[in-house]
Structure formats: C-alpha cells, structure tokens
Amino acid sequence: MPRKAPTPCRHFGCRNVVTEPGFCTEHAREQTGWVSDKRRGSRHARGYGAAWVKLRELVLKRDGGLCQPCLRARRVTRATQVDHIKPKAEGGTDEESNQQSICDACHKAKTARESARARTRA
User: What keywords does the record list, in alphabetical order (predicted)?
Assistant: First the structure.
C-alpha cells in the first residue's frame, strides 16, 4: 500500500510538513484551535438553552432583523446574531432590554473591544 503524502502542520504560519495529519513536533504541545466543551461547558451550562433561543428570536423580530450598531452608523445590514449590550461578565443580564440584533462584523469588533477591556482589568 502506498504511503500518504506529507501534509503541512496545522499551526498557522508553520511551514513544516508532517506524515500524519496534525501538528509538527514543534507545535504538537500547543493548545490551539477549538476549545472543547469540557472546559467551557455546554451551551446550556453557559446559559444559552431553550429560553435563550426564544429570546434570540424575539429580539431579532423586535429589531426587524437589522444590525443595531450599523443602523446607528446609518448603514443597513442584516443581523445574524443577538448580543448582550452590557456583557454578562460586566454585570449585564439576559433581559430583553439588554439585547440587540447585530451583524457578524460588528459582533467581532465589539467582542474584541470587550476582551481588551477584560485584559486591562486583570
């Protein structure tokens, strides 16, 4: 049986090749990529169960399916997610008044700002 062709290491930017799919010896010990639910907990354990699904649908309908930060910037963008206006980590709640419909780009930018604030607090 022929051997498998070498593949690149899965670590971003690494140019090493490996005979088995995965990481090279240099990056094999790094914890990269997806974090298992064993560490983070399931979505239900994090508070995103059936009640959240219903609230999410309600908020998307309330906001007309449009991204609220984009609307404030006078852009019309379809919302794909629902976000806590005041993050739960900063004392926000799951109340409907603390939710907004948001697009992917705005959500990523907002999450990056919140993460930077959290790093400065720690």
Answer: Endonuclease, Hydrolase, Nuclease
**pLDDT at residue number 62:** 97
Task: Quick: pLDDT tens for 30-51.
Answer: 655 555 667 778 888 888 889 9
Whole-angstrom Cα distance, residue 23 to residue 27?
6
Whether pTM exceeds 0.70: no
Strand partners, 100: 83
Q: What angle do CA 66, 71, 103 make, to 5 degrees?
A: 45
Beta-carbon-side half-sphere exposure of residue 13 (alpha carbons within 13 Å)? 1
Q: Which helix (H) or strand (E) holds 39?
A: helix 37-40
Instruction: Report how far residue 108's alpha carbon sits from residue 59's, in angstroms, rounded to the nearest whole number.
Output: 19
If DSSP codes are grouped into helix, strand and coil, which group holds residue 83? strand
Domain spans of the chain, in order of start: 51-121
Residue 112: count of CB within 10 angstroms of its CB = 10
User: Per-residue pLDDT for 64 more than 60?
Assistant: yes
Asked if 23 and 9 count as a contact pair (C-beta separation under 8 A), the reply is yes
